[in-house]
Amino acid sequence: MQSVYLLMQKPIVTALLAYGMSGKLFHAPFINFHQGFNFKGVFEHNNKRVQADYSGVKSYDTLQEVLDDKDIELVIVNTPSNLHVDHTRRALLAGKHVLVEKPFAPTVEEAKDLFELGRKVNRKIMVYQNRRFSSDFEVTKDIINSGKLGEIIEMHLRYDRYRAEIGPKAFKENPFPASGVVYDLAAHLLDQVICLLGRPDSYRKVTGIYRDHSKVDDYGHIYLSYPGKKNVFITTSLLVADPLPGIIIHGSKGSFIKSFCDSQEDQLIAGMKPGDSDFGKEDDGKEGRLTIVNSNGEKRTELIASVRGKYIDLFEAVYQNIRNDVDFPVKEEEVLIQLEILESKAD
After folding, report:
1. Are residues 322 and 74 in contact, defined by beta-carbon separation less than 8 angstroms?
2. Within this chain, do residues 82 and 147 fall inside the same structural domain, yes or no?
3. Exposure of 111 by Cβ count < 10 A (0-12 exposed, 13-18 middle, 19+ buried)?
4. Among 66, 98, 131, which residue terminates a domain?
5. How confident is the model at residue 2 (pLDDT cuts 50, 70, 90)?
6. Taking Cα atoms as reference points, which of 309, 330, 317 lies closest to residue 266?
7. Is residue 210 over pLDDT 80?
8. Do 186 and 257 reside in the same domain of the chain?
9. What is the pLDDT of residue 338?
10. Angle formed by the axes of helices 135-146 and 187-197, to 10°?
11. How far apart are CA 75 and CA 326, in angstroms?
12. First vs last Cα of the chain: how many Å apart?
């Protein structure tokens, strides 16, 4: 991987708009590692933290300083979700390409306006969906595409946590645009389903508030119906003490069951770097279980190890999109389908 990146020319000068958890774990290590990028700076309004980890990286005092820096080509919008639309618009008008964390926008209308603005100013807009590059999703894609399950009948995807307390992040716990667990966590699963199956024929969304004093949804369920009578069930909750398997797929020839897991986040928290030899490798014991029934009615079960998770491939896609105009894997139409469902009225 590194030898390929060394061949690249003219690194993309890049700045982050925040250095909280997402900046520290999901962006900085990768733009620092990938030699297609020059990690120049971070907008840090209050706490100045980035230089403790990256001594040569500049800390900007204001967003406008970032936008006024003519060297910066790419701005990563990883600020609170209720600010994504404003910060993306300002970055585009300043002549920057943008990589925007999910949710891209609260509504389809706002998203369309931003995509149109990007075309008008001739700048790239890319939506950051890192769960497309997780080990569990990669092996799930492989199993589905292999045809071993036959015709897919139902798919269950879950993203659960136990967080009974109200969290400290105001933008997640107050009724701002794009707040709540459905926009926060179900958005990952919804993107994966749209990536695999495209637009559903129909959908139905249920949300609920169950934590004491919660002001936003902390439970969500989305049912999607697809051609060929495929049924997809997405569930997320902040009150699950004993999580079920995160991926369950039943088809006409068999079943696949897999825990919702990916080692990359835990490895980053522990201080591992993207270039380390074991980075992205899934822990033993996390294998998926594939059960196939043959034409004689005989059942065979095998454990399926996941491929290595590679968040770095998302940044490679960013580089190729900006430098070589290669299509970004998260397509505009997929983003709009996702937001249409996220913003739809719950039953």
Report:
1. yes
2. no
3. buried
4. 131
5. very low
6. 309
7. yes
8. yes
9. 98
10. 30
11. 19
12. 47
